[in-house]
Predict the 3D structure of the following.
Amino acid sequence: MTAAVEARDVRFSFGSTPALRGATVTVAPGEILAVMGPSGSGKSTLLHCLAGILVPDGGEVLVGGRRIDDLPEAERSALRRDRFGFVFQFGQLVPELTAEENVALPLLLGGVRRREALTRARGWFDRLDLAGLEQRRSGELSGGQAQRVALARGLVAEPEVLFADEPTGALDSLTGEQVMDLLVGSARERGTTVVLVTHEARVAAYADREVIVRDGLVTSLTPAAGRP
Ligand SMILES: Nc1ncnc2c1ncn2[C@@H]1O[C@H](COP(=O)(O)OP(=O)(O)OP(=O)(O)O)[C@@H](O)[C@H]1O
């Protein structure tokens, strides 16, 4: 089966600091993969390389079996917009926009007309337990609400792959569990592939499989905790 996303022997340095030293990982279509590992081990860098945000110094990144690391920036940017969704640790909502405009953003950037984009965006508010908050700005939302809005924004364009970098890192454990339930539930409903960076075992337990990044290498493959 062709992998949804794959890194082959990927190397990346920030100046003289090596962040990835030959990382190899394969994510199957519809799989939820947790990327674990100590602070500074290269987890975010691996996610950024898989998502075509960073271009590796060596090795290859493939999406649906096709190399993306050698594409021009404009094509990688279009790929991110059209086929990927993103959720980061601190939601990173646009403060000037309402919650529903934030959710609609990927659709608007993809050329969907405003009225249709907002209608599709609103559909997510009930689903993610956000009904009534459509017109709020990010400063008027709790951390958990803002992160659910960010999750809706990551999923609204029905991406093939959702990249989530510490999506619960700024939340208390109960709120974090609610966000993970919604993230995993929505991904499973649509068969969305998920690459989930986390240093928390209880978050990784939501995944189908976990890999550990250590010193810029993917060093171990184990079943996620709590799964047979
Ligand atoms: N923008 C940057 N400039 C310079 N060095 C960086 C930059 N980003 C990351 N690094 C370095 O690259 C290495 C890998 O960082 P990365 O952020 O990928 O680790 P991480 O496993 O995601 O860490 P954390 O769990 O703390 O977020 C570290 O040594 C880090 O200091």
